[in-house]
Amino acid sequence: MAYITQAQKKELAPGIKKVLKKYGIKGTISISNNIKLNVNLHEGRLDLIGEENNARRIWAERNRVEFRAVGCFQIIPSAAETREGLSSEVTAFYNELSAAMRGELWYDNSDPMTGYFDTAYYLQINVGKFDKTYRFDDKPYRFSGIEYKLAKKFGFNSDDTFFTRVAPMAANIHTNDTVIGSLKIRYRHASRLHKGDKREVLYYVLDGQ
Q1: CA 111 to CA 25: how far, in whole Å?
Q2: Do the beta carbons of residue 36 and residue 122 sit within 8 Å?
């Protein structure tokens, strides 16, 4: 029987917030009737509404039905993992958010063919609300002092769109020259490990992966 408590929500919250922060999304976490975990997305640097409408347009054209644009929508996480029309970045965001919402607590032993349902709790992602749409923030990212210093040290600049995704992680680093030196050592190690792929390298350096 599906059931989730406030204590379980609190246990899952750090992982969920980490994903939101990584992708520059603002949102909240809630529970409905103690059976469903919701992540409510309000604004961010991913164009979730635009990409959802793109996916729906493709589906409508393929099935020869009328396309209707949406200003808000709800999705079951697993349904977003391989949808045509979503960019690789938005797909990755949904996948990582879905995994964080499941954490170590979730299971699903349901068998719809026999009408047997047994799951830890239900999952839902809410993008905007009917009276307040999700806001796509496409303004250039404003670097803090530490973020700017790290960007400069590691060869990124404020025009690098990828760095705007990971820069918020750097805000947690209270740095000095010793810390910067340590990060540069990790950077050199990561460069060899990931063969110079700046995306993987910076995740390794800033997120400790």
Answers
A1: 34
A2: yes
DSSP states of 34-48 as a string?
TTEEEEEEEEESS-H
Q: How many residues does the chain have?
A: 209
Tell me which residue of 27, 9, 22 sits closest to 132, measured CA to CA.
Answer: 27
Closest alpha carbon to 172 in 196, 154, 152, 147? 147
How far CA 91 is from CA of 125, 174, 190, 195, in Å, comes to 13, 32, 25, 24
Coil/strand/helix, residue 121: coil
Containing domain of residue 162, as a range?
Answer: 145-207
162 & 123 share domain: no
Residue with tokens 């809630």: 30
**Structural domains in the chain (count):** 2
Helix (H) or strand (E) holding 22: helix 6-22
Boundary residue ending a domain (118, 136, 154): 136
- Give dist(CA 121, CA 70) in Å, integer: 27
Q: Output the pTM of the full model.
A: 0.68
pLDDT in tens, 124-164: 999 999 888 899 887 655 555 655 666 666 565 555 544 54
User: Using an 8 Å Cβ cutoff, are 199 and 162 in contact?
Assistant: yes
